[in-house]
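Quick log. Single chain, no ligands specified.
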Amino acid sequence: MQLKNMRLQLNKTGINIPQKADKYLNSIVPFLHRALGDDLRSIIIFGSIVKGYCTKESDADILIVVSDKVSKKKIKYLNRVLMAFEIKCGYLKPKKNIIQSILYCVDKSTGMFISHFICREKEFLSGKFAKVFSVNKIMAAILAPNDIVMGSVIGRAHTLYGENLVKKTKLPKVSVFQLLKSAIMNGLTAIGGLITVPFDKRATLYEMESFKWSLLASYYYVHNDCPNINEIIQYFEKLKVCPKALKTWTGLRKKYQEHLKFSLFVPLNVLQIHLSVIGKPK
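-> predicted structure:
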């Protein structure tokens, strides 16, 4: 499949790929095709780009599905090369000190601010969360709202290359227990983001990510759907849930800057958002 055709396929669905993401895709797709051949089963884009609300700070959100016979060694090699492409395209900054290295390990263990994920076909189709997103198995089992995240990915996914494996999956239904895990996970992420304030200029981004995933998870819990972010915002505006924080978050998405006041209240906002949908008809 030629890259030009891949772009046309996206245009037919009304998806516009930003220049930064387009440069990244034009770099990695030929490489992956050369490196994997027929073992490259599918390349899936998901998240804000698919729904048309990505920002300058958004990740590429690419899921690469390979055949079941691809070895761990080969996957590690592919990850290293793709990280080099991400540095070149501006999605990943070289780690210059121990603090940045620690924060990157946190990002990898949670899946936050990571632009690509590689998994085997069987892992994707069976919905093995930890394998699909290469996150810590223990944390995934205890804290991660697996069904919510998988549902959000599938509901905001589009096949760029290869077989459309997305249509072979189903949106999982979410229990209140999953919603509780989402509240805990995003609350801890928000608190962790506050700890990074003295060390990292991205601290507010951690708060924004916690806030965003609280909105996505809570909306998905009620509607089992992942619409455009504007529709989700309108839903919570009608519920009158933390309106000031919602307005600030929307503004920061348009023009990012460090915002300590917003960040300080995100742990509370996370709780408010999740509590607002408990008991809502599904």
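The CA atoms of residues 245 and 265 lie 8 Å apart.
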